[in-house]
Design goal:
The model has no long low-confidence stretch (mean pLDDT 84). 46% of the residues lie in helices and 24% in strands. It has five helices and six strands, in the order βαβββαβαβαα. The chain has a six-stranded mixed sheet, with helices on both faces. With 155 residues, it is an alpha/beta fold.
Length: 155
């Protein structure tokens, strides 16, 4: 199941469970993980993006290692809410990841990189260190927004 509806996604996971958040870039995939009670998201690894088969194997290993119950994938909408080529690419990637058999939530990521950058700046992180961590930090922002909506019912 792939959806952009938090209530539909929540109904697919009545017992909660660990979620994996993904920020899909052209060269990297930022990851984040949340606790089974959907309270907090933490940045994970930044994976080098390659051919889909290699990406899938890395993500599948992470899913098994962390006992992930669902995926939250950032959906890069335009500022007016419309979808462009990047959003279509994220939807296609989600369709490909459906082979993992997990419910997938597509979550609006319009401000995720800005929020992540601010958080890293607040930590007084150097430019080089921010560049290394921005994708996983953005994935955590995406995932936190989704779990806030899922756990609190805010949609």
């Amino acid at each position: 199941m792939i959806t952009a509806s938090a209530p539909e996604f929540r109904s697919a996971l009545p017992g909660g469970g660990v979620l994996l958040g993904l920020d899909l870039g052209t060269q990297t995939i930022g990851t984040a993980i949340c606790d089974a009670g959907w309270r907090f998201a933490s940045p994970g690894k930044t994976l080098k993006r390659g051919k889909f088969g290699a990406d899938k194997a890395l993500l599948e290993a992470l899913v098994r290692e962390r006992t992930v119950k669902g995926l939250v994938i950032g959906l890069p909408l335009n500022m007016d809410g419309s979808e462009g080529p990047r959003a279509q690419s994220s939807r296609a990637y989600a369709r490909n990841l459906a082979v993992l058999g997990l419910p997938i939530l597509l979550w609006d990521e319009r401000w995720s990189t800005v929020g992540a950058e601010r958080g890293l700046l607040d930590q007084d992180m150097s430019r080089a260190r921010r560049a290394e961590r921005i994708d996983s930090a953005a994935a955590a922002v995406i995932l936190q927004g989704a779990i806030d909506a899922l756990a609190g019912g805010v949609l």
